[in-house]
Q: What sequence folds into this?
């Protein structure tokens, strides 16, 4: 019996965070949410996510910087991160992968497409 | 020996009158001089000895007519008869084409005649004259009471009596007949010596006829010899001479004549050489300069210096026929051009467009205005025919005239000038063209630079638009898609569904507000017309606060003296609202944002004008001076793009400034004393209703 997969959603916009949270739960994952990096770090410690969905543009520490930070930290480096950004330019995409992200999705993304990427990365919930 | 001059198509021939002293040789020539040249144009040169006897004498060329297409010019000589001048006789005889022996019929002079005749034969041999040179005899002085019969005179010369021409030279009888016979004989001989081809083509009868025609007038004049009045030879040179001296003079006279000839030729060549040198110098100077005045100066100076002219000028005739002097050298010719009488004459000479020379211009006109003593000759040589510009040269008075070589010189010089001036014209045209091109290129460059800057500005704006607007629009869109997907595909509990529906609605409103902002600014950019009316400032502030959604502001302070001002109320409230919104986003927090409405004075093009200023003050971090103008650019936003920023697309300050300007006012930022920013919307309010209290205080 495998434990339920855990996913952490970090986005400052609750209107984006909540539908994602509901959909992933319906898909059988355990979903946790955070509004910024500080909250996110506490959530990682408490729920040990298998995957992080991370918004790039956030108040405080931006997603790219935090992503790179996590990847440098041996405790968290193995957690795959999918970056979500409303600035879907090629440059952002490259910077995302450079920061160690496993995937990158431009807003507005289709929840169905996002679900597919999640499955590819950590399997079904 | 006859000389054929191909260049002038002239045949020079030499006829010598020979004979005993005092036999009438000189008389023959004087009669001929009178008959052939009654106006005395040619010059009869006579060199006399002290006892008034002729040494030699030269009748300058006169035209006998034309033979074989050549003008025949004769030089007539006499020899001194006195026996001691034998050397002179030989010298004069040398090269003769025919000889006339003038015998003295006086019976007592038989011996003199015989000796002279023998002397002629001897000297002809000595002068190496061909025996075929015709020798004609004239039996002169037939009127003397002691004249020997013709047969006797002929016999002195061993001639048949019909071989001589009886004459009374002093009365003109027989002179012309002798001359004609001698001329015919001479020309027959010259023709017989011409090249065979020419000779064969000649009809002897025709030649006779030509000669008769040429000589007929002289015969007619000679036969009316009573009318012939002998004049003294001009410029007689009297020699006070002993026989020895005479002999020396005699032999050197011929040489002297030759020398004079050579000297004249040499000085002519020298003059021509000098002309050529000046011409080439003028050509060099006119070629070296690209300035019209310098080219003209070179040409005009050359004309004055080479010809010794009084003055030279380039004259141009305008459309009304007035002559204008463009440039001159030497004496000023302006009086000539401006005078009522000579001006039009000069104008006509220029208008003719060909070389015109007048040798006796009324010289008084220039002289009364010029100190140089007037002018005599005047030459007009066209330079630029299309512009009716001519070279005008005046020779100084009292008798300065143009020789034919001077005219040739001027024609060549005018050619040089024309080429030089044309070169100047083309050069100037090219330069003007180049200047025009440079202007065009720099204007193009400027407009290209402007277009480029504008493109760059627009491009930067597009980038900002994509950066800001995409985020601002895509975030609510993401929320809507996420919530709608959940509602459609999963359908969770009631609470969840309600939350999702509320999210969709809220995000849609955010989008709507964004689209409203964009559309409003787009309409503003398209020049939407404002509706102006008198507005109370308090209404504007209240509406602005509503638009900004501002709650945490200090109570606005409105100067009570301002009752109303002319404005578009909705637009002005929008502008102020945007500024308040901006202040709250970037400068709020520490202290509440303040709003003040006060009278102000505006700088207008015509001076100062009354106005109203809406100030929005904050205690935020302020704006760096170099970033101030950027803050008013569309889609420009403060804050870090990645760490998020207050919502909005960056149109607020831009829109506010456009609205202020549509009202004829301004929106500027200035640092607030004590820290923070102050944004000032200043509007002209000449028709602002200000309370009487204000006016009283002012007065």
A:
């Amino acid at each position: 019996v495998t434990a339920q997969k855990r996913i952490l959603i970090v986005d400052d916009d609750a209107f984006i965070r909540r539908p994602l949270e509901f959909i992933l739960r319906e898909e059988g994952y355990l979903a946790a949410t955070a509004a910024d990096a500080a909250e996110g770090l506490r959530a990682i410690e408490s729920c040990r996510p298998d995957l992080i969905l991370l918004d790039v543009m956030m108040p405080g520490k931006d997603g790219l910087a935090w992503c790179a930070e996590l990847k440098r930290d041996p405790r968290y480096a193995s957690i795959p991160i999918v970056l979500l950004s409303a600035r879907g330019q090629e440059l952002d995409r490259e910077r995302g992968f450079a920061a160690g992200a496993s995937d990158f999705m431009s807003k507005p993304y289709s929840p169905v497409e996002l679900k597919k990427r999640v499955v590819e990365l950590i399997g079904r919930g | 020996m006859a000389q054929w001059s191909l260049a002038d198509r002239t045949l020079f021939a030499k006829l010598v009158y020979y004979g005993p002293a005092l036999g009438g040789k000189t008389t023959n020539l004087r009669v001929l001089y009178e008959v052939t040249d009654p106006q005395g144009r040619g010059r009869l040169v006579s060199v006399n000895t002290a006892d008034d006897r002729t040494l030699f004498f030269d009748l300058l060329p006169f035209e006998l007519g034309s033979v074989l297409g050549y003008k025949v010019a004769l030089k007539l000589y006499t020899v001194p008869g006195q026996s001691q001048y034998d050397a002179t006789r030989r010298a004069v005889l040398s090269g003769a084409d025919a000889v006339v022996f003038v015998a003295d019929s006086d019976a007592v002079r038989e011996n003199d005649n015989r000796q002279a005749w023998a002397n002629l034969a001897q000297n002809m041999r000595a002068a190496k004259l061909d025996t075929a040179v015709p020798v004609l005899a004239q039996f002169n002085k037939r009127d003397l009471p002691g004249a020997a019969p013709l047969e006797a005179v002929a016999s002195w010369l061993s001639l048949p009596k019909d071989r001589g021409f009886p004459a009374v030279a002093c009365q003109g009888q027989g002179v012309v007949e002798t001359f004609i016979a001698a001329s015919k004989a001479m020309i027959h001989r010259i023709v017989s010596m011409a090249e065979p081809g020419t000779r064969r083509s000649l009809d002897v009868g025709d030649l006779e006829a030509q000669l008769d025609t040429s000589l007929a007038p002289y015969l007619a004049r000679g036969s009316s010899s009573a009318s012939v009045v002998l004049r003294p030879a001009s410029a007689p040179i009297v020699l006070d001479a002993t026989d020895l001296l005479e002999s020396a003079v005699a032999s050197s006279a011929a040489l002297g004549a030759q020398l004079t000839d050579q000297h004249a030729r040499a000085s002519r060549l020298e003059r021509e050489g000098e002309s050529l040198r000046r011409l080439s110098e003028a050509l060099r100077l006119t070629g070296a300069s690209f300035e019209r005045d310098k080219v003209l100066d070179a040409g005009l100076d050359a004309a004055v210096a080479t010809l010794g002219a009084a003055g030279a000028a380039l004259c141009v005739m305008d459309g009304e026929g007035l002559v204008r002097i463009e440039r001159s050298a030497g004496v000023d010719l302006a009086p000539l051009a401006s005078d009522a009488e000579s001006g039009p004459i000069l104008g006509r000479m220029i208008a003719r467009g060909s070389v015109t020379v007048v040798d006796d211009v009324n010289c008084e006109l220039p002289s009364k205005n010029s100190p140089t003593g007037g002018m005599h000759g005047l030459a007009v040589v066209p330079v630029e025919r299309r512009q009716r510009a001519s070279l005008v040269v005046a020779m100084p008075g009292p008798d300065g005239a143009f020789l034919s070589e001077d005219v040739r010189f001027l024609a060549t010089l005018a050619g040089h000038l024309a080429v030089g001036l044309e070169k100047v014209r083309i050069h100037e045209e090219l330069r003007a063209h180049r200047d025009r091109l440079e202007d065009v290129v720099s204007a193009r460059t400027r407009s290209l630079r402007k277009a480029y800057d504008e493109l760059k500005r627009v491009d930067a704006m597009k980038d900002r638009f994509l950066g800001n607007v995409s985020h601002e629009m895509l975030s609510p869109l993401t929320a809507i898609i996420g919530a709608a997907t959940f509602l459609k595909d999963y359908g969770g509990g009631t609470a969840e569904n309600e939350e999702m529906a509320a999210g969709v609605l809220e995000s849609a409103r955010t989008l709507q507000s964004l689209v409203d902002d964009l559309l409003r600014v787009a309409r503003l950019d398209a020049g939407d017309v404002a509706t102006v009316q008198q507005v109370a400032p308090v209404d504007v502030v209240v509406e602005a606060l509503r638009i900004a959604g501002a709650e945490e502001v200090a109570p606005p302070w409105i100067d009570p003296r301002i009752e109303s001002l002319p404005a578009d109320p909705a637009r002005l409230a929008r502008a102020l609202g945007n500024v308040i919104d901006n202040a709250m986003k970037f400068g709020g927090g520490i202290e509440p944002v303040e709003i003040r409405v006060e009278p102000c004075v505006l700088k207008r093009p015509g001076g100062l004008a009354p106005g109203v200023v809406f100030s929005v003050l904050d205690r935020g971090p302020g704006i760096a001076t170099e970033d101030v103008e950027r803050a008013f650019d569309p889609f420009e936003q403060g804050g870090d793009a990645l760490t998020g920023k207050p919502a909005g697309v960056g149109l607020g300050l831009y829109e506010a400034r456009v609205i202020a300007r549509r009202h004829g006012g301004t929106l500027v930022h200035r640092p607030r004393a004590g820290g923070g920013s102050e944004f000032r919307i200043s509007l002209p309010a000449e028709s602002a209703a200000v309370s009487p209290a204000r006016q009283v205080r002012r007065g």
User: Anything to note?
Assistant: The first helix of chain B runs from residue 25 to 36. Chain B touches chain A through 30 residues (CB under 8 Å). Confidence is low (pLDDT under 50) at residues 55-61, 225-245, 365-372, 692-699 of chain B. Chain B has 18 helices and 22 strands.
